[in-house]
Amino acid sequence: MTWSTYAGFAAMMALLAMMPGPDTMVVLKNALTGGARGGGWACAGISVANFLQGTAAALGLGAVITRYQPVFETVKWLGAAYLVYLGIQALRGAWRGDYESLDDVRRARASRSRRFREGFLSNITNPKVIVLYLSVLPQFLTPESGFGDSLLLAYTVAALGVVWQVLLLLFVHRVRGWLQRRKVRRAMDGVTGTALLGFGAALALEG
């Protein structure tokens, strides 16, 4: 693989990473309720799942999953249901508008595992991620490419996702004063909840 080929691949994946998707919405949802640290734990969960999916694609396991229809359909419906669940959670928060308890430090610490789990499950149950790896990576590989090249491309996708999510968290941290306003929080929860419901429905209806 040449450096020009890799640079082209990285540039394309960077643009895709910045497109709003379930991962971005899950990070934003957790950043709104738990601050930058809360969003960071969700980002960590997403990153672990992304690296696992990238490894599976490089090893050829992803192709097995996508070709075996019952497994693929099961993962798809689990992913859709989980995104809908997260969306409903966000909409409930927007409806209630009760954010006083979210400042409790002990509750924030106890929710670290939940935030990590939300990020991990939202990514690992999204079959579009493995499909992305399987459809894009081969276009930048040649018959002479080895397993190392496949891993390099797969991990580049995951790493660029981390970079984008960290930039998003930095932005949320910079405007945290504005985001702490009750009306703004309710509006943001409504937007993220609606978006997550939309992504879940789109995933479920996709043929």
Topology of this structure?
Elements: H1 3-18, H2 22-59, H3 61-67, H4 69-96, H5 105-110, H6 112-124, H7 127-136, H8 147-174, H9 176-179, H10 182-205
Helix pairs in contact: 1-8, 2-6, 2-7, 2-8, 2-10, 4-6, 4-10
Structure description:
The chain has 207 residues and is mainly α. The protein contains ten helices and no strands. The longest helix is centred in the N-terminal third of the chain and has 38 residues, at 22-59. Helix 1 (3-18) packs parallel to helix 8 (147-174), helix 2 packs antiparallel against helix 8 (147-174) and helix 4 (69-96) crosses helix 6 (112-124).
Name the descriptors.
207 residues; mainly alpha; 0% strand
Q: Would you tell me the overall average pLDDT?
A: 79
Strand content: under 5%
The DSSP helix count reads 10
The largest β sheet comes out as: none
Cα Rg: 18 Å
Which spans have pLDDT < 50 for at least 5 consecutive residues? 101-106
Tell me how many strands there are: 0
**Helix content range of the residues, please?**
over 70%
* End-to-end C-alpha gap: 34 Å
Taken from the alpha-carbon principal axes, the silhouette is: globular
SSE order, one letter for each helix or strand: HHHHHHHHHH
Structural class: mainly alpha
